[in-house]
Amino acid sequence: MSPFKELPEADQQLAQSLQAGLRASEELDYVTASRLRAARARAVAAARRPARGWLYASGGLTAAAIVAAVLLLQAPHLSQVAAPPFPESGAGTQADALDVLTDEVDADFYEDLDLYRWLARSHDGDA
Amino acid sequence: MDDPAPPPASLDAFLGGVERRAFRRAQLATRDREEALDLVQDAMLQLARRYAQRPAAEWAALFQRILTNRIRDWQRRQVLTRRIFFWRDGPAAAEDGEDPLDGIADGAQVESSRQLEQDEVMQRLSQALSQLPRRQREAFELRVWEGLSVEESAQAMGCSAGSVKTHLSRALQSLRADLEGVWP
Q1: Which domains does chain B have, with CATH numbers?
Q2: Selected residue of A115, A117, A119, A121 to mutate for chain B interface (largest B Cβ count, 10 A)
Q3: ipTM above 0.90?
């Protein structure tokens, strides 16, 4: 039975013939095949590794704490050198720095936004 | 409606089943072995890191979607690079690049005249495929070469099943014209 039932008869035959020809050309040289195997092994290992989100989050928080501590320690020194233009700006800057450092936006998320939409739709469809 | 293939037993088995074809697709698009290997590796890692916990039956469409996006991004970067560095030849210069479908590896050492003829035919097919509009080529690669169902192809391309059928029909029409008298 043809796997291309949506096509007219003549197109089905052409599609099957092209599929067979393309698949027959998939043999690879040893080096390329080895590198693909190595890439696959890395991917499988990555899937087995536990999620590291908590690690990144804790790392980000640690970095934020260090920056905040440095800002606090330097604040009296800065105030002696030059008076800040706005008295309350020191606290605001520190809070802003914390916000920036702890705001972890995954840039790849935007890249695959439509894929996530599809996944959400398919999930709703399954439910 | 197509009969769905049974889901793969493991991620390793799934990737092992698609890696060669994925590499050939990427090589056809990039005409560069190293770039193709990088694209396939990126797609494998992306699938493993983000979607390994999804049902195995969804991996095929997800992987093809990721790979298709990676290939598109690569092609956009090439266009941009060629625009910026317009005075020099781009790395994807088709005239000088190796043909992605030639050299059937180990057998090439003892090529008979029949083998050479077959290679020539595959080269023509490669050229014809590379000249197709992007959406038509994607529909052909996913539906015919990969063997995804119409629905899976639509998911991988981010369009409707009807669009897949239309693109595929036009792709086959062009290929038939381009390969007339060559394709057996």
Answers
A1: 7-88 (1.10.1740), 112-184 (1.10.10.10)
A2: A115
A3: no
* DSSP labels, A1-48: --S-TTS-HHHHHHHHHHHHHHHHT----HHHHHHHHHHHHHHHHHHH
A9 phi, psi to nearest 5 deg:
-55, -45
Q: Is the separation of the CB atoms in A104 and A60 below 8 Å?
A: yes
pLDDT digits (tens, 9 = 90+) for B163-175: 999 999 999 999 9
Please write the tens of the pLDDT for every residue from A30-76. Answer: 999 999 999 999 999 998 876 555 556 667 777 888 888 777 777 65
B58 touches chain A (CB under 8 A): yes
Nearest chain B Cα to A35, which residue? B37
Considering only the beta carbons, identify the residue of B2, B44, B147 that sits closest to A19: B147
B143 to A4: CB separation less than 8 angstroms, yes or no:
yes
| Angle at CA of residue B62, ends B127 and A103, nearest 5° | 120
Which residue of chain B comes nearest to A42, CA vs CA? B45
Rounded to whole angstroms, the Cα distance separating B73 from A111 reads: 10
Give the integer Cα–Cα distance in Å for B173 and A14.
10
